[in-house]
UniProtKB/TrEMBL annotation, chain B:
Segments forming domain ABC transporter: 3-233
MF term (GO), any: ATP binding
Gene3D superfamilies documented for this protein: P-loop containing nucleotide triphosphate hydrolases
Pfam families: ABC_tran
Family affiliation: Belongs to the ABC transporter superfamily.
Name this protein carries in UniProt: ABC transporter ATP-binding protein
Superkingdom classification of source: Archaea
Organism in which the protein naturally occurs: Ignisphaera cupida
Presence of the UniProt keyword ATP-binding in the record: yes
This protein's UniProt keywords: ATP-binding, Nucleotide-binding, Transport
């Protein structure tokens, strides 16, 4: 067996290393759960509710149907939905409320339910009343965050007095109603056009129609000239035939909440015209909506993950310290390396074999750490990061650990057993704790407090990162945040750091931190007496 | 099939361990390498097998320099150290497999060879035992098994008989003789000349890092002198002065003196020692004492 692979296998299969690798994996899972936990409790604008609710004042029955989804991917989410029907008088005082209803689902499915309005409240709901306002207050808790809101009912002008409401948020409500013979009254519609990727557009449309059997055909087309967003209207007049030539039939829309894919490339389109046509061709809904480039939860999950990862990555160098002890320092202090060196192998090969074996462990352990974290997040939250994020996060931890391993390896080549452990532990504490203290002292006595104090300390921290084997991880986090800031305009990178975080210098520094200690270690090892 | 040590010098800090050491071990020859503890035997051997770089000089194994062509040289020489040290938290067969990897064997071949060799050397029941659980004798057998990978034509045994039971001693002595029959070159170090008596064709003597003699065993036997070996309760200047009247005393260890070229009878010497208040624990009379030859060399090397 190739000695590098054998050393790798041996390194991996040591009980202590297996325990450490298991810790990496558990840390990955822990990281994912900490990230999810952070997201669940955060009120953020990247989940959306589209709900359609009707209230029949004659029967007192409230129907509710809706979906919760990540607005960037349109992926439906599961979670806990709490809602409460409230009646408020025109002065703004709450005059009655149903008890809170909790409805939850583990999978990403639609929720729907009925709520029988109590007699007390029912008495307040009167036909054609203008004394009271009705609303549904809700709280949705998902893995992607928390959403709270309120949807207000507006009365439809039908003989059963149906009150209709759709959610607010990014949707575009089509207000108004048209009475048509035989078709009843069209109450209300909510439309969303979301740019999902460069070539796909999803439509979410909620319709409130007098009968559950009512349906419409949805056509969409490009807008040639800019038109006002307010151009929503319900009409009995059909659109011109010329206009309809450029439209594409997307599908059928029924009463309630609908999601449709628009199979057309609208990558360069900023506005889309739509027409809803009732099969009886007696009612039309027409309008123009903008294509929205909406940032979903992904950047926030990435930021959260990067922040939480610190808890774990600070402890990983201890494994590197131990690995160098296992590979060189311990066998060297025992005198066991001599017996290996008596084989057909040069000192340089022996040195490099164990160096690379340790680096292979770093490569695998770091990969496992983030793979577990990312897989857990993908499974639970449905968030799949962009490849740039994967690469930067992985490189951040892997390169830093390689650099620290290289440093420990050099120390293990120069120092035996106990001395190695003492010095390497000091080095670990130095680069994780003492360096921060030095920065604070320098900040107080050199930078001096002032208007740009925080900015200057941050800059100093990044400057110092060049002088730490673990510094690459800081820069990788910075570059990841910068990527999202540039691409989506979310998050913020510390001011003044752009000039310091030079990608070329960061790369050179990382390579130097890996190569130079290993090289210095070799200069000691090549002549070292390996006897105990 | 030859081990050539050419002008090797080595210092550890200020201590000169070896000074211009040169000698050769030829095919089908067992060469004893004899010196007191700390004389430089192990240092010479560590340099010869390529685990310690010399300050100057070189060692050639079948013409390959251990300094410049180490891999080729190491492939051609087996080494059993006095106290073999392994990464001992591994199981024997696994560690054998790992080391065999350096000889280019695949894992399956290495395991097969490992099983064969370890079973042949009496370690068949301990293949899966951790090396830390091995006794000293087992460790030496394991080291020998590893050294036999590739059947090298040259062997170096460093104080290999130390700490072994009679069965172990016989095993390694017979092995050296067997290797000679196979036309291998064998270097066999010891701090006791009589230990290599039955096996060595030639003996190279080292003292304080210098080669002080290189003689055939036959010549050494011829030169051996009678001697009286005494185990005493005290060995000090007064005792040595008393013994000088009866021959040439050499301190062998803390309480053991070898009286070379005795001119008095042993009973007379014992009487005088007891009269002087020195307890005599043991008296051994050697008609021809090999060590005497060795001590004579040392005495001459020190200008005596």
């Amino acid at each position: 067996m190739n000695p590098v692979l054998y050393d790798f296998k041996r390194g991996i299969l040591r009980l202590s290393v297996v325990v450490a690798i298991t810790l990496f994996i558990l840390a990955g899972a822990g990281l994912a759960y900490m990230t999810i936990q952070t997201m669940v409790g955060t009120k953020v604008p990247y989940i959306e509710l589209v709900a359609m609710s009707t209230l029949d004042i004659e029967t007192g029955v409230l129907d509710l149907e809706g979906i919760v989804f990540d607005i960037s991917t349109m992926k439906e989410l599961g979670g806990v939905f709490e809602y409460r029907f409230t009646v408020i008088n025109i002065s703004g005082f709450k005059v009655g409320a149903q008890p809170v209803v909790v409805w939850s689902t583990r999978d990403s499915v639609r929720f729907s339910g009925k709520l029988n309005i109590s007699k007390n409240l029912g008495s307040l709901i009167k036909y054609n009343s203008s004394e009271y306002l009705y609303s549904l207050q809700y709280n949705i808790t998902t893995y992607l965050g928390l959403k709270s809101g309120e949807i207000h009912y507006e009365r439809s002008n039908v003989n059963r007095s149906i009150y209709c409401s759709t959610s607010g948020g990014y949707s575009f409500d089509i207000l108004g109603s048209v009475e048509t013979s035989g078709a009843g009254i069209f109450g209300k519609a909510s439309l969303r056009f979301i740019k999902f990727s460069n070539s796909t557009i999803k439509v979410v449309i909620a319709l409130c129609t007098p009968s559950a059997k009512d349906s419409f055909e949805l056509y969409v087309g490009e807008v040639k000239t800019a038109r006002s967003q307010q151009a929503f209207y319900i009409t009995t007049k059909p659109p011109s035939l010329d206009e309809l030539k450029n439209y594409t039939l997307v599908g059928t829309v029924t009463n309630g909440v609908n999601i449709l894919d628009v199979p057309q490339n609208f990558s360069k389109v900023t506005q889309i015209a739509f027409v809803l046509i009732q099969p009886s061709k007696t009612l039309y809904v027409q309008g123009v909506v903008p294509v929205m480039q909406i940032i979903g939860a992904t950047p926030y999950v990435v930021f959260s993950l990067l922040g939480q990862a610190d808890v774990f990555t600070r402890f990983f160098p201890i494994l590197m310290l131990y690995l160098a002890y296992v590979y060189i320092a311990k066998p060297r202090s025992q005198g066991a390396l001599e017996f290996v060196l008596a084989r057909p192998v040069t000192r340089l090969e022996l040195y490099l074999t164990r160096l690379f074996a340790g680096i292979l462990v770093v490569v695998v352990a770091s990969a496992l750490f983030y793979l577990v974290a990312i897989a857990t997040i993908a499974t639970i939250m449905g968030i799949v990061f962009e490849s740039y994020t994967y690469i930067m996060m992985y490189l951040g931890i892997a390169v830093s650990l390689m650099a620290f391993y290289s440093l420990c390896y050099a120390l293990s080549a120069a120092l035996k057993g106990g001395r190695y452990l003492a010095v390497s532990i000091f080095v670990y504490i130095f680069f994780t704790v003492i360096i921060q203290i030095i920065i604070s002292i320098v900040a107080i006595f050199v930078v001096k407090p002032g208007p740009n104090f925080v900015e200057n300390i941050t800059k100093l921290s990044y400057q110092m990162a060049y002088f730490s084997p673990l510094g690459f991880n800081e820069f990788s986090k910075y570059f990841t945040m910068k990527y999202y800031e540039t691409k989506y305009g979310v998050g913020f990178t510390p001011p003044g750091v752009e000039d310091i975080a030079n990608p070329v210098l960061v790369g050179v520094s990382a390579i130097a931190w890996i190569v130079i200690p290993a090289l210095l270690g070799w200069l000691v090892f090549r002549k070292a007496n390996l006897s105990s | 099939m030859v081990i050539e040590i050419v002008g090797v010098s080595k210092s550890f800090g200020r201590v000169k361990a070896l000074s211009n050491v040169s000698f050769t071990v030829r095919n089908g020859e067992v060469v004893g390498y004899v010196g007191l503890n700390g004389a430089g035997k192990t240092t010479t051997i560590r340099i010869a097998v390529g685990v310690l770089p010399p300050d100057s000089g070189n060692v050639f194994i079948d013409g390959y320099s251990v300094v410049k062509e180490k891999k080729n040289a190491s492939r051609l020489v087996g080494w059993v150290p006095e106290l073999p040290i392994f990464e001992s938290d591994f199981r024997a067969l696994d560690y054998f497999t790992y080391l065999a990897g350096y000889y280019g064997y695949s894992a399956s071949d290495a395991r097969r060879i490992g099983k064969e060799l370890l079973e042949k050397l009496g370690l068949g029941d301990a293949l899966k035992k951790k090396l830390s659980e091995y006794s000293q004798g087992m460790r030496k057998r394991f080291a020998l098994a590893v050294s036999l990978i590739g059947d090298p034509p040259n062997f170096v045994f460093d104080e290999v008989l130390n700490g072994l039971d009679p069965q172990g001693i016989a095993f390694f002595r017979n092995l050296a003789i067997e290797f000679r029959k196979q036309n291998k070159a064998v270097l066999f170090s010891s701090h006791i000349l009589s230990e290599v008596e039955g096996i060595a064709d030639r003996v190279v003597f080292i003292h304080k890092g210098r080669i002080v003699g290189d003689y055939s065993m036959e010549y050494i036997r011829q030169q051996a002198q009678p001697a009286i070996e005494l185990a005493l309760t005290t060995v000090d200047g007064k005792v040595l002065k008393l013994l000088e009247k009866h021959g040439e005393p050499v301190v062998v260890s803390e309480k053991r003196v070898l009286l070379r070229k005795p001119i008095s009878d042993s009973s007379q010497i014992v009487v005088e020692l007891v009269t002087a208040g020195v307890g005599v624990l043991e008296v051994k009379k050697h008609e021809k004492h090999l060590e005497d030859f060795f001590f004579e060399l040392i005495r001459k090397a020190e200008g005596g």
